[in-house]
Amino acid sequence: xxxxxxxxxxxxxxxxxxxxxxxxxxxxxxxxxxxxxxxxxxxxxxxxxxxxxxxxxxxxxxxxxxxxxxxxxxxxxxxxxxxxxxxxxxxxxxxxxxxxxxxxxxxxxxxxxxxxxxxxxxxxxxxxxxxxxxxxxxxxxxxxxxxxxxxxxxxxxxxxxxxxxxxxxxxxxxxxxxxxxxxxxxxxxxxxxxxxxxxxxxxxxxxxxxxxxxxxxxxxxxxxxxxxxxxxxxxxxxxxxxxxxxxxxxxxxxxxxxxxxxxxxxxxxxxxxxxxxxxxxxxxxxxxxxxxxxxxxxxxxxxxxxxxxxxxxxxxxxxxxxxxxxxxxxxxxxxxxxxxxxxxxxxxxxxxxxxxxxxxxxxxxxxxxxxxxxxxxxxxxxxxxxxxxxxxxxxxxxxxxxxxxxxxxxxxxxxxxxxxxxxxxxxxxxxxxxxxxxxxxxxxxxxxxxxxxxxxxxxxxxxxxxxxxxxxxxxxxxxxxxxxxxxxxxxxxxxxxxxxxxxxxxxxxxxxxxxxxxxxxxxxxxxxxxxxxxxxxxxxxxxxxxxxxxxxxxxxxxxxxxxxxxxxxxxxxxxxxxxxxxxxxxxxxxxxxxxxxxxxxxxxxxxxxxxxxxxxxxxxxxxxxxxxxxxxxxxxxxxxxxxxxxxxxxxxxxxxxxxxxxxxxxxxxxxxxxxxxxxxxxxxxxxxxxxxxxxxxxxxxxxxxxxxxxxxxxxxxxxxxxxxxxxxxxxxxxxxxxxxxxxxxxxxxxxxxxxxxxxxxxxxxxxxxxxxxxxxxxxxxxxxxxxxxxxxxxxxxxxxxxxxxxxxxxxxxxxxxxxxxxxxxxxxxxxxxxxxxxxxxxxxxxxxxxxxxxxxxxxxxxxxxxxxxxxxxxxxxxxxxxxxxxxxxxxxxxxxxxxxxxxxxxxxxxxxxxxxxxxxxxxxxxxxxxxxxxxxxxxxxxxxxxxxxxxxxxxxxxxxxxxx
Length: 964
What we know:
Layout: H1 38-43, H2 47-50, H3 55-61, H4 73-83, H5 91-97, H6 99-111, H7 114-128, H8 132-156, H9 159-165, E1 170-175, E2 178-183, E3 192-195, E4 204-216, H10 218-221, E5 227-229, E6 250-251, E7 256-268, H11 274-284, H12 291-320, H13 325-339, H14 344-361, E8 364-366, H15 369-374, E9 380-384, E10 395-400, H16 402-405, E11 412-413, H17 426-437, E12 442-444, E13 449-451, H18 454-462, E14 475-481, E15 489-496, E16 505-512, H19 513-518, E17 520-524, E18 530-532, H20 535-550, E19 554-562, H21 567-570, E20 580-589, H22 596-605, E21 609-613, H23 618-628, H24 635-638, E22 639-641, H25 642-646, H26 650-656, E23 662-664, H27 670-680, E24 685-689, H28 695-700, E25 703-707, H29 713-718, E26 721-723, H30 729-768, H31 777-788, H32 790-795, H33 819-844, H34 852-872, H35 880-883, H36 889-907, H37 909-915, H38 922-932, H39 934-957
Parallel strand pairs: 9-21, 9-24, 17-20, 21-23, 22-23, 24-25, 25-26
Antiparallel strand pairs: 1-2, 1-3, 3-7, 4-5, 4-6, 4-7, 8-26, 10-11, 10-20, 12-13, 14-15, 15-16, 16-19, 17-18, 19-20
Helix pairs in contact: 5-6, 6-8, 7-8, 7-12, 7-13, 12-13, 12-30, 13-30, 14-30, 20-23, 22-30, 26-27, 30-31, 30-33, 30-34, 31-34, 33-34, 34-36, 34-38, 34-39, 36-37
């Protein structure tokens, strides 16, 4: 075996039968961030090429023996060195994704965070200047944020573990002519693997031989039905790419053997498997920074600039006054450090963490802290239909057959009738029989109900209404072509024990009506005859199918044809499904969830674009959309089919997607292109998904949302949020929470910065004009505690105002410090400065010096201003009397305790000595209370004026709300 090439996977192979030297399987390195869909990247794994060749050629190409496997230890070692171990994560990946790797990535993230760097720098400068208190408090703040962030990061990086759960630890290997039980990680291309019912496939295998083999591929494709497998090669595709769902001679890593047994040739291991390629794509996708992270980075930059400006101005003024360079540098740096709200990262982190807890109670599990706020920025939600917008419970609603019903006016309303035996014409009976034969649902005695695909269950449940029985016991299933979102039909080859009926073998097919009709040449009459389909017949069938679809029904067509003995089954493939006899149509209804329509209405009013992605026909999709309130202005522009989507570039899709609300006949692989096109426009995108092949799109989206009930483990681990009830309306509560959290962040930032600017300005003014400092060091420290402590943190847990949904989503590039917020900060700071300076000057006017009473009055005045400022900051536009004075218990407790603590500072002798204060009279306190409340009164007046303007603003800005 010395002529095996160094890398049989590294170069393109033009001739599949060529010698191994210089030929390979396929090129693997395809970047995800191109317009290539996720499914395509999976499609070009080595199994795609091996699927089209015979077993003999596959064995020859891998230079092995189809019976005894690889013959030497040296060759096994050589291949393992070449291809690595059979794991989706390498040793390097272990390092990068282990605890040490997480810590490295976490620390590198802080190096890029300007606000954290600024705080670290402030702590160092404070320590150098012997301001130990500031240094300790700032360092503690950074450590707390680091710990919370590390824990969250550690919990979120589980994608590899989810993938590895699907890869078995052990497998049955044939090597050196002997079968043994070995670690799956030791497999190399060319090995022979034996598998039985209950085994998980340990690598991508080219099936050598099999008996009644069916695999559960739901973990890979999301399709619930078992897939029949055989050793027959797949016909070559003109495009050169065999879709993963069509590789019936390939057993994929991680899939489960449901029926039968067989042997397979290992053609791909580790990252070259279909599962491995998904992991590679997920690791290639860089999760974008959330809008909050972007805004916080900008805020850090702005605060840094502000700090340097303060240092520069104060230094220049002091030097101009004749002070020493060193003194002015120390003063200006101290002021700059005091100006930085070191409690901000803690409050942001705590606010997000509390948001996560609240959302968990509302059946939305958020896996990444910053994602909580990102939900409030989402302006496009791409959602699946089945199980998310609908109840995922199919029922047969209507039925139609060409011969017995002839026109759309005679469509049989099955749902409103309990006994339908009088309607049992031959074509009706045959349609239902095909529905029961082309079916994989099973009855569970334990649960007293059918289990399986909802469509299959609905058909079996309908048989009793017509007095029919399940016909599957009378037939032996010889072959099956399973349904998938690309093929759009299911077919079974059946053999019946011989009796009076001449037909002993037949093919039954069900699927999308346009696919079945295109493969049909005849139709069944009501008395059992077979007639040729005319063009007029076809037009009638299409008209009736469209009529059913326009009523919001999922339309399936049914057909069959006899087979000539067992020979037909040996060549049973997708291309053989033709010359069918059409029997009828069945329309099924999956009712929308009751909570979906009001949720969509609120989201549209909030300026969120809702896009429904479904495999249904355009007519069915439009009908469902209208039922749940998704606007469809014009079907020509509002609906885009999967086939048309595949012909468009990301640029073309980005140009038209603004008007598209529905993607019909779409596949999971289309989702990645949709996300890329939306993000190219600058949209903040949420995407739902449940299958493994949804994982790359979920990770690329700003918010990936997976289903907690029907979602696969890999989809859940790739997502940012999991809906534990699979209900779309839960997304509304999450968006509300996200918007509310951002409002709370803006509110406590307004409080912190206005207080900080006021304190800084007073000290800066005293320094600039060479006046006595109105506040001593301990008083400034106390104000700092109040500014960063409980009152500020309690603003972060302010209950979410449901009217926040009336505001449009904020832009990805929007600052936290908008012009409106900055105006509030400066206006509030001005009020505090004006009132506090007034008291300071008033008290000093007697002797011109700062006495203990003067500093106590000034200090207490500032604290009272601070508390009333916190009250005003509870809501940016609503009066405190509208939201309720007692609606935030934590806030009331925090402010109450702060005021009690301030009174202790004034009246307790020990604290008087520390803070250099003295007793104040009741009149003093009343005066300071009245003066401090002016900041609250002024802000209430501002809110009244703003509310008059915002009423019109909300109506004009929400463009989607006008389409409800």
